Predict the 3D structure of the following.
Amino acid sequence: MTAHLTRRELTRAATIEEIKQTALTLMRRTGTTNVVFSDIAREMHMTAPALYRYFADRDDLLTALITTTYGELGTLLADTSAAVPDDDPGGRLVAMCQAYRRWAKTHPERYELLFGLPAPGYAAPQDGPTTEAATRALGNFMALYFSARALGYDAEPQVPGASPALARAFADPVHQMHDMPTEVAAGMLHCWSLLQGFISLESFCNLNWFSDEARDDLFVQQLQLMASMIALPAPKAGWGSAG
Amino acid sequence: MTAHLTRRELTRAATIEEIKQTALTLMRRTGTTNVVFSDIAREMHMTAPALYRYFADRDDLLTALITTTYGELGTLLADTSAAVPDDDPGGRLVAMCQAYRRWAKTHPERYELLFGLPAPGYAAPQDGPTTEAATRALGNFMALYFSARALGYDAEPQVPGASPALARAFADPVHQMHDMPTEVAAGMLHCWSLLQGFISLESFCNLNWFSDEARDDLFVQQLQLMASMIALPAPKAGWGSAG
DNA sequence: TGTACATCAGTGAACGCGCGTTCACTGATGTAC
DNA sequence: TGTACATCAGTGAACGCGCGTTCACTGATGTAC
């Protein structure tokens, strides 16, 4: 029974969690992926050296933050998907992408943390917890195809066929794409590009010359393109705006 | 005759140029958008305070760097486009996108500078030189449509029609899209999203789990999607890889 | 052409602040007998 | 149940470094007469 945790172990886990949350909160407040030990400590009514009881150094904390953030994103996507009935994969696509978009717009620094230029000396440990968390988060999109197929939808996606090199890449089970047609797998990646492109442009203020409404409409159009790329049926509740 | 420049004015202009280039070189060396006055000065065999003769402060230099970088990107795109015959807009699309992609991969920190999370306290001056330089750079893509139309290509792009809000946005002549069909304008933006998405994913190492060859093939597929979105003919020399 | 003055480039020293990290310590929490 | 010891959380002071920025200065370049 390792379930018996001392009070010390419990508060320790709670403190670690609090440090990470405080760091993320401060990141939002400053609008940077920069994280300052003294600031975190002050926010928690502690002193900076105390943090070294929980994280070896700044890089260690950063790795934990990235993992946590991927986890948060994954949970968001999973919850959003779960809130839409099984038999509406198109609706799930719309809901998940809109949720992702809103999340990135609300927390551009978290988006930057995951998908921006890696920090100065920081190299994510290969095959580490970050990679695993990332795969899990993206798995939510892969699941769309399988739930659509379970419903009998298996229209040909409107994308070019996969090349041998691509097919070889897709065959690796790590990416969760090994048992979908290579056209769908390729389509998934095109969707991913399209989504990331829009979201990074919007979150980093490079689409400010558009009205909110125009941006919304543009995004809805991209959702439609995405659905066609991976051959998903239209969402039952409609696309959400001008179509 | 303001053409008469004193030696002082000439060396001054040259020094400003050298400072900017040194800053960009250092950015590449450190792999960050961070720029350190002392480092620039040392590289130029000067001392840090001397730089204040040329730039009011760090933000001032940053603004200049962004403008310069947009200019560099614009020149790259224009030159690349000009190297392809007028009557091959599809070829121009391929050449420009590949050039852009290579540029971002070689200089991820410059890409970050233009399209990443804006620096800490830095707010780009609205309607400033940066905006103008950005518009000029992107204008090279708009030009694709016009050169295609001049050749008689005017197929319907395979994208949803533009909503009223979008149409209103496109009507603003600033964006150089006011005299193209709204479907084409929308298609342009979808292309832009797709391109930015792929490039940011690749440049920031989020597609490392693919082989170089697989990434190349994926990009070629996206080029084909882009061509169909803005109704460009296929490139005369082919797509460049597995199609 | 030469001289007297103004303007500008660049230096070196210094200020001030932020911030990661170390260290010797105190007090509280847990463990062994 | 109580006592003696080990472990851990957290503190406060300090080190060391980086870096933006200021300032009084020297020497060179340009300008006016």
